[in-house]
């Protein structure tokens, strides 16, 4: 009885926390911003288009995961990938950070192929890594398309000057992370027998040998599928680029003069990266704070648009998308339900500690 009450309390908290964060974000919006938004002519067609583009991005991301799973020798149909991915998207709204659904993916694949447990985890990790790499590439592309972002504001107020300094930090951080990511991918995917020998050598180390021996071979599996992996990176660009366009459409639907599309190719990927930090369910609150700050420091031409409001409406678009996951959740098979329950038990244990 006590265990049941505790489970119900944890479940209630999972759903209450996102609602409380959204309520706080709405409360802290300035009255002037509400007045400005209400005075703007809304373009509801653009808001609907933002939803359609986001759904396309979501489906493309599930297709990418399916491709990476097959590279690990695990059977998964495209229809299953779309159904499971939709459920994962729903679960991310009641898990800390935006990675909660990944746990369910790994558990489901491990239950389906017990001998491929590590490979299942590897597919999820690589899928997440591809998404992150795609975000970084978009930031770099946005900086090249819009090299003067924030530069023209150097003679403005001190706050804007601080924004210019922030842009320099963004440029350096992006270059470093892309460099590191490229090196790691090149070693794992393109490396030959030398890398395999390095993994064999690392497997014999006293402290990390067992970990290297367990994770190394599944990650190296993508060495045999370089074309498929390259396609997955291209798909990541398509996913993240679609999400950028979706948020830009939200901004255009709410405001007549929001930051330009080129600015959003810098703003949105960085905001998405921030939202992956395990701080709040689905990154709610973190995304809004990041977008609001980036709206102030990225555009070369200052904007009156509220990054918080734009990000909040974008979150509402994601909630509508999660409804699709709810439908699949209600109609899930016994195998899927068992995996969901196991993932919830693991999360409860982690929260208890």
UniProtKB/TrEMBL annotation:
Transmembrane stretches, start-end: 44-67, 87-110, 130-151, 172-192, 227-251, 266-287, 308-330
Protein name: Uncharacterized protein
Membrane topology: Multi-pass membrane protein
PANTHER family with a match to the protein in the record: BLL5419 PROTEIN
Pfam families tied to this protein: LPG_synthase_TM
Subcellular location: Cell membrane
Top-rank taxon, per record: Bacteria
GO cellular component, one term: plasma membrane
Keywords assigned by UniProt, alphabetized: Cell membrane, Membrane, Transmembrane, Transmembrane helix
Transport in keyword set: no
